[in-house]
Specification:
It is found in: Cell membrane. This protein is an alpha+beta fold and 614 residues long. The chain is built from 16 helices and 17 strands. The radius of gyration is 67 Å and the shape is rod-shaped.
């Protein structure tokens, strides 16, 4: 795993905090500002369209008043009743209508500028036309298609706005306001149409006040899906996709891809003319201020990030530099080189840490010197105590080794003497040789450097001497596996236990059914030797007493050397000798049942590590 440094962590955390702050603030600011700008632009466009819609309705209402004047004029009504071939009446009423038109139009300057022409068309096919630029106009022959379109308008007297002109040259540049007119009697049916052509170019001056930027434009769609304004839009097919969206949206704002560009369309329907006034601007242009805010936010964020990282670097150095110095000094201190750090100019927490470090180094130096002195003194005392203890243990070992039952030696010597007097026999030689081996084996002082085979050989010599003394042959059953004969054990521990059995397990003498069995095993890191007999056993009180003495780890007292004590001295000494060599965790244990026999267990480590050498 890659090791993380404190400086790297500081820079990383600073970077995370700064970047998260800038991203959150920048994203929220950009989102809020974009949303606010979109709403503001949308509201601005809606206000402009509403204003244009209001002014348009005002102008159209003024022309409606003019249309009402014509439709209610008695001369116009009379004109609708003339005969188609009566030239005189046509001339009379045409002149009257011309004068009425001239006086009505010239009285209002705005109407004068925006009016293209006024014409009155009767069901009989005769018409009167007043052109704004030419006060006297002869009666033209209307094309049949235009005549039919005029006659199709509603007959309830309401105003109808038509996207048409009686002159092909004016087509697309004017809008016609038409109304059917009844005869002289208001109860009669409709007799004709009064139509007023309004110049869209003049009316468009009102719409041109709508500021829509470089790529924005304004257009009008009537309720049938025809484009009224501007003339270029009139070339589009009626009720195409854009016009259908405008009609379906009502007064709602929508986005639509127009000429490969995403645009916003704000539509308002006039309650007077049933026109849909629509303003359009590219979405990209609408969001350009938001893009400017975003770019500015990114630039300011990057500059702020660079400054913050520089400040983080400076701040990190002011913290990390003294910490690194403290770390290097501590490494030198670990090597034993007491190194102090200059505290000048540091009054903050790091200065306090450096002061504490210097104080710690001073105290540690003094303490270590004292510990060294105490350790040297302790080692000197331990060495002297160890030498004294070693001498004491050696004396104790020698004393234990010399505690061989003197009665056995005396009886043996007496027996040898009797044999020598009575007869000259090889038995004397065998007995003397066995005794010599025993004495030589007993006086050696190296307690542990012997094997199980050595101890068994010592027991064999003991049995040779014992058989010559008692005159009875007795064999010991040795069941030790051959692989364990070379295991190490303590010298002079097996023979005293065998001797103890002969003295106390068989007080009435050895019978043919008696046995002594020696076995051994290795288990759980321990090496154990078992000596088992089927003698009288040990009474429970005596067994408890012996176990207590074994737990106390003490040698037998001098007054316990008598045989009446049940062999306590031999057992105690064997137990203590094992502990002196291998430690307090090892030794002798006794299991016995009164009247059925005893089992002695010597426990030693599997791998012998000598503690003392004689």
């Amino acid at each position: 795993m890659k090791r993380k440094t404190l400086s790297g962590q500081i820079y990383t955390y600073f970077l995370i905090v700064i970047v998260l702050s800038l991203l959150s603030v920048g994203a929220v600011s950009y989102w809020q500002s974009s949303r606010a700008l979109d709403d503001q632009v949308k509201q601005y466009m809606e206000q402009m369209v509403d204003s244009a819609n209001y002014q348009t309705d005002s102008y159209l209402q003024a022309y409606e008043l003019l249309s009402n004047a014509f439709s209610s004029n008695s001369d116009v009504r009379a004109f609708m009743e003339i005969k188609p071939d009566d030239a005189y009446e046509y001339y009379v009423y045409s002149d009257k209508i011309k004068k009425f038109s001239e006086s009505s139009v010239q009285s209002v300057v705005t109407l004068y500028k925006q009016l293209n022409m006024i014409y009155v068309v009767g069901q009989h096919g005769r018409s009167f036309i007043y052109e704004n630029q030419n006060l006297l106009n002869f009666d033209p022959v209307l094309v049949q298609e235009q005549f039919d379109n005029l006659m199709k308008i509603a007959g309830d007297g309401k105003i109808a706005l038509l996207n048409m002109s009686i002159r092909p040259i004016d087509q697309g540049t004017v809008v016609t306001m038409a109304r059917k007119v009844r005869g002289p009697s208001y109860g009669d049916e409709n007799r004709g149409v009064v139509a007023i052509e309004i110049k869209l170019a003049e009316l468009a001056k009102t719409w041109d006040r709508v500021s829509l930027g470089k790529e924005g434009f304004f257009f009008i769609v009537d309720d049938t899906g025809n484009y009224i304004y501007p003339p270029s839009m009139g070339q589009r097919k009626p009720k195409d996709e854009l016009a259908s969206l405008v009609l379906a949206s009502g007064n709602q704002t929508f986005l639509h891809k127009y000429n490969g560009e995403e645009r916003m369309f704000v539509s308002r329907k006039s309650g007077y003319s049933d026109w849909n006034l629509v303003a359009s601007m590219p979405v990209e242009e609408l969001r350009r201020p938001a893009d400017t805010i975003r770019t500015t936010t990114i630039i300011v964020g990057l500059v702020t990030l660079a400054i913050a990282l520089w400040l983080a670097y400076r701040f990190g150095r002011s913290i990390i530099a003294p910490i690194r110095g403290l770390k290097d000094s501590m490494r030198e201190t670990e090597k034993g080189n007491w190194q102090y750090i200059d505290e000048i100019g540091r009054t903050d927490e790091i200065g306090g840490l450096i002061h504490s470090y210097n104080l710690m180094v001073t105290r540690l130096s003094d303490m270590i010197e004292r510990v060294y002195e105490a350790e040297l003194l302790q080692q000197k005392n331990q060495l002297e105590l160890g030498e004294t203890k070693l001498e004491r243990q050696r004396a104790e070992f020698q004393s234990l080794q010399l505690q061989i039952n003197p009665h056995f030696l005396y009886n043996t010597l007496e027996t040898i003497n009797c044999y020598a007097i009575v007869q000259d026999s090889s038995e004397i030689t065998e007995m003397v040789e066995a005794m010599a081996f025993m004495l030589r084996y007993s006086v050696q002082t190296n307690l542990e450097e012997i094997t199980v085979a050595n101890e068994l050989n010592h027991v064999r010599n003991y049995m040779i001497v014992l058989q010559h003394r008692t005159g009875k042959e007795f064999e010991i059953d040795v069941a030790i596996p051959p692989g364990l004969l070379l295991e190490k054990m303590v010298r002079l521990t097996l023979q005293p236990l065998i001797e103890n059995i002969f003295q106390h397990a068989f007080p009435d003498g050895v019978e043919p059914h008696h046995f002594i069995r020696i076995d051994a095993r290795k288990e759980g890191g321990l090496f154990q030797v078992f000596i088992e007999d089927n003698g009288t056993g040990i009474q429970p009180e005596r067994l408890a007493e012996l176990r207590t003495k074994l737990e106390e780890n003490r040698l037998a007292e001098p007054e316990e050397t008598g045989e009446s004590q049940g062999g306590g001295i031999g057992l105690m000494n064997v137990h203590r000798r094992i502990q002196m060599v291998f430690g307090e965790a090892y030794g002798l244990s006794i299991d016995s049942e009164w009247g059925r026999g005893t089992r002695l267990t010597m426990t030693m480590p599997e791998t012998v590590r000598p503690r003392l050498r004689g």
